[in-house]
Amino acid sequence: MPVFLDEVPAVVPKVHRPDTRKWSGLFVFLLVVGCLLSFLFWTGTKEGLVFWFTALGVPFCLWGIFFGLRRIAYKTDQVWAESWNANRNALWNEEILRGQRSAWLIASGVITQSGSRTDKILSAIQSSSPIIQVQKTREGAQVRHSKLSGFEELQSTKFSEAIKTLITQIEPVLAKIPSDIICLLIADFNTPGIPDALQIASEIIQSETGRSFVLLEGNGFEALDNWLDNAWRKPSLVLSLSAEIRQAPGEGEGEAITLALMLNRKHPGIPEAVQLRRPEKYKNDSLTKTLSRALIWSQLSPEEVKGSWGTGLNFSQGGEWHSACEENKLSLNMAEEHKNIDDFIGYCGVSAPWLAVTISSLVARSGAAQIIAVETDTNDIWIAGVTPGDNTGIRQDTL
């Protein structure tokens, strides 16, 4: 479940001790009133112990009772406030630590129009050589988009081949993972021409890896977010598989099949693994606040962020991301260090978040922390950090 720091109760202000001047003033007032009333309405001789006790002692006793009750109330409020703030701070720190849980991205792969090499896609983006172009769709229309080659006919066969290609790429890393670890699957498919894509993929994964993967509830970063909470106590492996194969692509859209293999524990035998930090979901408040929370989860200072990646049809057209970066004091050259993936590959729908993760992880492996901002096909915006190795102070068990 997401981390909602805004729902953590506020700190109770410090309880102020009784004002000495006010209570001194009340004491003088009661003495004056007591003396006046005693002298005005005393019927007997105005002398002796009883008279002076009435004139001076009664006001003093009343003042003492009031002051004592006020002092008890002050101490009670003070103890309550300190206890409240201690519990609140413990909850705040607990939520921060929960928010700073991360997944270890140990292997990934992607297939686009340019092939199955992620480094080739990264080079195309860094050299400003778009893969997206005006070309015929599978229905014959001329549209600026990118598409997977060979999916005009026998899409199920080509899809199976693509999944096997990606599985082959991660097999060396997968062989290092204990066979008895819990294996989970995040599946995101938008494949109108392949209605049984999930069944095909599941059968191939099991036959190629020899492992049984249990399908996680939810999709995309929402499923990742839930996994970081629900499966944190035990080591587990997550295979995220996504495919966007459009029937009739629109202007500026693209196709991709992605695979990401993640652990919730550090593996000493995979030093090249990077950390995918808990993604923060935009909650209709401000993108600036969402980015700020993502930086907290990533334990990154603004100066440590060396690049950002964005994807999303509506997201990429606005200037709110630039404003969010400025307000969070990210020292990025937005013309060179921020890349909009859609300009080079097209918007890849359900595969867009994982495409951003895969591409940014290549840069993070070189030691440069990255921030990704993705808009999903359901118009949700998520921001997450992709950082090299373990640069946190959080204790995370190894596998």
Features:
11-stranded mixed β-sheet, transmembrane helix, membrane, 2 domains, two-stranded antiparallel ribbon, 13 strands, Peroxisomal Thiolase, Chain A, domain 1, alpha/beta, 399 residues, 10 helices
Please summarize what this structure is.
It is built from 10 helices and 13 strands. The chain has 399 residues and is of the alpha/beta class.
- The number of helical segments is 10
From N to C, what is the helix and strand string? HHEHEEHEHEHEEEEHEHEHHEE
Can you identify the CATH class of the largest domain?
Answer: Alpha Beta
Average pLDDT, all residues? 88
Number of domain modules: 2
Helix/strand/pairing category: alpha/beta
Helical content stands at 40-55%
N- to C-terminal distance:
24 Å
Principal-axis shape equals: elongated
The total count of strands amounts to: 13
Beta-strand content bin: 15-25%
Fourth-tier CATH superfamily name of the largest domain: Thiolase/Chalcone synthase
CATH architecture of the largest domain: 3-Layer(aba) Sandwich
Q: Are there runs of 5+ residues with pLDDT below 50, and where?
A: none
Summarize the biggest pleated sheet.
Answer: 11 strands, mixed
Annotated CATH topology of the largest domain: Peroxisomal Thiolase, Chain A, domain 1
CA-atom Rg in angstroms:
32 Å
